[in-house]
Every structure is written in C-alpha cells, then in structure tokens.
Design a protein that fits this description.
Largest sheet: 5 strands, mixed
CATH class of the largest domain: Mainly Alpha
Strand order of the largest sheet: 5-4-3-7-6
Number of strands: 7
Order of helices and strands: EHHEEEEHEE
Shape: elongated
Structural class: alpha/beta
Number of domains: 2
Number of helices: 3
Length: 154
C-alpha cells in the first residue's frame, strides 16, 4: 500500500501534474527557438531547455506514481476513545509545562505547523498515530524528551 493522502492533498497533486503537463508546450517552444539559433553543440539555451524538459518529465512520472499507489483517506469524525488517524484533530498537553496544543494530522503535502497541521512523518504526529484519549506519549524533540497526554481526539 502506498502513502495515505487526504482528498485535498490528492487533488493538489493532480493539479500539480496538470500544471507540469501544460508546461510541456512552453518548454517545447523554448527548445524550438533555441534550436533555431544554430550550432547545438555550443547552444546553452538549447541544453538548458532540454535539461528542464527532462526534469519536468521526471517530476510528472514521480507524481503520477505517487497518485497510483496512494490511498485517499476521508476525514472521519473522531470521538473520545477512537485512535488517532490521518484526519484526526488531537488536543494534547505537555506534562512538563502544562501547555496545551491542538493539531490536525494531515498528509505530508498539507502539513503546516503555522496552521497546527502536522504529518505522521513529524515526531509528534508519528507518536500520536494509533493512540487513544488518555494515553501518554513520549516524543524526542529538539529540547529533549517530552511527555504529552492526549486530552481529546476529534
């Protein structure tokens, strides 16, 4: 099974692929114009455009492969006692400081710490996955090992 994505992340990847495919025409035109300048062996504009074309095609193939193997996970309303999963919003409390935070677990493409959206690839997000309300997790963060208590899962 490939990576899990929310519908929003899946749609964003599809839009990125379409944008890259539209870019093909621009790159092709640039290659044609550069070819018209003469000797291709010493034509840096031509070689740069060919490199860009190769990178563009590689990116399209990579993104298409991600989409092919991805599983779209719908946001599910979570109640107390349900395990943390992609799409869950979790309220946690740092046991050393008493500070409370609320995070939504999203795919890596959607993660934005400024919006309190974290991915399972982050230390806190990874530690929360599969846990239930009331459980205590330990997370190794830059300031050291921190214990968090899960207060609520929505």
């Amino acid at each position: 099974m490939g990576e899990q994505l929310t519908q929003k992340s899946y749609d964003n990847l599809k839009a990125k692929i379409e944008s890259l495919k539209k870019r093909r025409a621009v790159i092709s035109k640039t290659i044609g114009e550069a070819r018209d300048h003469g000797d291709l062996r010493e034509n840096s504009a031509y070689h740069a455009a060919k490199d860009e074309q190769g990178l563009n095609e590689m990116r399209i193939k990579d993104l298409e492969a991600r989409l092919e193997s991805a599983t779209v996970v719908a946001k599910i309303a979570k109640g107390d006692g349900d395990a943390v999963a992609l799409g869950s919003t979790v309220r946690i409390k740092a046991l050393d400081t008493g500070r409370e935070d609320e995070y939504t677990i999203v795919s890596e493409d959607e993660a934005d710490v400024l919006e309190n959206k974290i991915s399972p690839q982050s230390p806190v997000g990874g530690a929360l996955l599969g846990k239930k309300t009331g459980e205590v997790i330990e997370v190794d963060v830059p300031r050291g090992l921190v214990k968090y208590k899960i207060l609520e899962i929505k």
